[in-house]
Write a structure and sequence with these properties.
heterodimer, A: 170 residues, alpha+beta, 6-stranded antiparallel sheet, 6 strands, 42% helix, B: 3-stranded antiparallel sheet, 1 helix, 41% helix
Chain lengths: 170, 118
Amino acid sequence: MTRVARDDRGAALVFAIVFMVVIGALVGASLSMIASGLNNRTTLDAVRDRQYAADAGVEAAIADARPHVTTWANASYDAPPLDAIQTFLTSAQCGTFPARPRLNNVDIQVTCSPAPALHTGYFEFNVIFSAVCTNCPSTPLIVRAQVNFDFDVPSRTVKSTYVQSWSVNT
Amino acid sequence: MALIVIGLVVSAYFATFSTQSSGSTAQRNLVSADAVLRNYAETIKSAVRDAVNGCGRANPPPTTFTANFTPPQGFAVSSSPSVIGQACPAVTTAQPEQLTVVLPNGTSRSLDIDVRTP
C-alpha cells in the first residue's frame, strides 16, 4: 500500500483569511452597535425638543388667551349661568393662534376650544389647548391640555390659571 | 504574508475596541446631558409656578423667581436670561429661556423653553 504525501503549503494563508473574516465580522458588529446607539440618541433628542416646543407653545397660548377670558366672560350674569355660558361657548372659539416662531427647530401651531364645567349657579372657564407640530413627519398632536381660568366676576379679571390635565404624545 | 494579515486584523480589532470605549463614553455623556437639560427645565418651570416663593404666590404678589439647580459633576448649566432673581413674566406673555448644558468633553447642548406666571 502506498501513502499519498500531503502538502501543508498554503494552510497558514487559509487560517489567516478565516481569522480575518471572523474578526472583521466582530469589528463590523461593534461599529454598527456604536452607530446605532448614537443614532438613537439623535432620535430621542428630537423627541425631547418636540415636547418642549409644544409645551412652550401651549404655555404661550394660555398667556395669550388670558385677556380674552375677560371678553368671553363679558356677560350680564343676569340669568346665571345661561347668559355667561352662552357668551363663552360662542365667543371662546379662540381658534388658531398665530404660528409661533420656530422653537428647538420645531414649528408648533396651537388651537383651543371651550370646555366649560357646569355647577349650580356658575360654570368654570375651562379651555382645551392642542399643540400640533407642523413640520414633524409623524404624531402631529403633541400636547393636549385642559386649563381652568379662575375668573373673578366682580373685578373682571383672571386671578390665576390651573392646569387640570396635561397629556403628551411622544 | 499571513503574519502581516493577522497583524493588520488584530490592530483593527483593538482599534475598534478603543473606538467602542470612547463611543460608549460619548453616549453616556449625551444621555446624561439630556437628563440634565430636562431636569433643569422642570426645575425652572417649577420655580416659576411655586406658590410660596415663586410667581404663583397670590399675596403679596411676587416679583421674582429663582431656580436653583446643581448639575452632576463634570456638567455645567446656564440659562439666558438668568433664572436667579429673574422678574416674573407678565401674566399675558410667556418668557423664553434658553438652557445650555456643557458636557465634560466641552461640547454643549441647548434647549429652549417658555415659562409663564400661573
